[in-house]
Amino acid sequence: MRSEFKTLALTAAFGLGLSAVAEAQTIRVAHVDPDDWQGSKKGAAAQIFKNIVEGESDMTVEVFPAGALGNEDELVAQAQEGLTQVVLVSGAMSKVCPAASVLDIPYMFSSATVAWDVLDGEFGDALADHCLDQTGLRTLAYGETGFRNFTNNTREIRSPADMEGLKFRVQPIPLYVEMVEGLGGEPTPIAWTELPNALSTGVVDGQENPVGVIYNNGLHKLQKYMTLDGHVYAADFIVVSDEFFQSLEPAQQEIVAKAARVAGTMGRAIQQWNTAEGVKKVQDEGMQVYSPTAEELQAFADNAQPAVVEYLRGELGDDAEWIDRLNDAVAQSTN
């Protein structure tokens, strides 16, 4: 599989007329989101990364948005091979660095600012170092995909009891299956491309995604109710091939690292904007939106977390310590 990625990337490079000399001064940046800085967190992050690097150095940045070089798993593999120097990915990171999956523990983060404190602090630095050792990819910064929320077309959800008997489309990831089962719903793994049809035909009653994804893909037109429970905070990882990073001069490394930090912040800001705007838009278009109280959210957490944590401890083995390290970091941020 890796050899296929290498062949594709080299073919693309020759197609673009890149010589070996030019390649050394060129940073290819790839992601799967649209190339729209106002509506896409990864799109915004990639554009500002390009502007800073090109404005402060003689390096050139070429951005490949919208999955032009492949899906997230393929982008991670390309970065590990050094064929695409910088990639912006979310869920794919935990597949090569399992410890990163602890960030998906439901109801771990009470707010985006808590998540930022944790990821930009000692925990985030330690996780980045660990993933570097595991993958050869250096995490330059963390962006944001956003909090995921439940929608359905049957009834308002204010408690786990309201989820009983409802079928929810989930990503084909065991952690999400465990979470929905813990909440009393019936998880149904379905591919993203099949989701609209599954909702339209009643194969599933509901689904879960960030608000921006729900609105931008018209899912609110197929669902009547949304509960802003924010069950999972999804982070973006802005990573670079460490072999490439180490080949840069110290001044270039500083510029690339700075550009990534700004890019992560930009992505977070765009995501926050999309969430706030998205909630208003779905309401204006007829969707009923409910914001649970602190007590109601605790009930969701009490039902969802135990099964997921037990699953992760079994999957992570020696790396299960990252669950406790994350708990400690969140506690320090919120106390």
Automatic annotation (TrEMBL):
Taxonomic lineage: Bacteria, Pseudomonadati, Pseudomonadota, Alphaproteobacteria, Rhodobacterales
Keyword Signal listed: yes
Main localization (coarse): periplasm
Keyword Signal: yes
GO cellular component: outer membrane-bounded periplasmic space
MF annotations from Gene Ontology: carbohydrate binding
Coiled-coil parts of chain: none
Alphabetized UniProt keyword annotations: Periplasm, Plasmid, Signal
Organism: Qingshengfaniella alkalisoli
Location within or outside the cell: Periplasm
Secretion signal, residue range per the UniProt entry: 1-24
Pfam family for this entry, one: DctP
Protein name, as recorded: DctP family TRAP transporter solute-binding subunit
GO BP, one annotated term: transmembrane transport
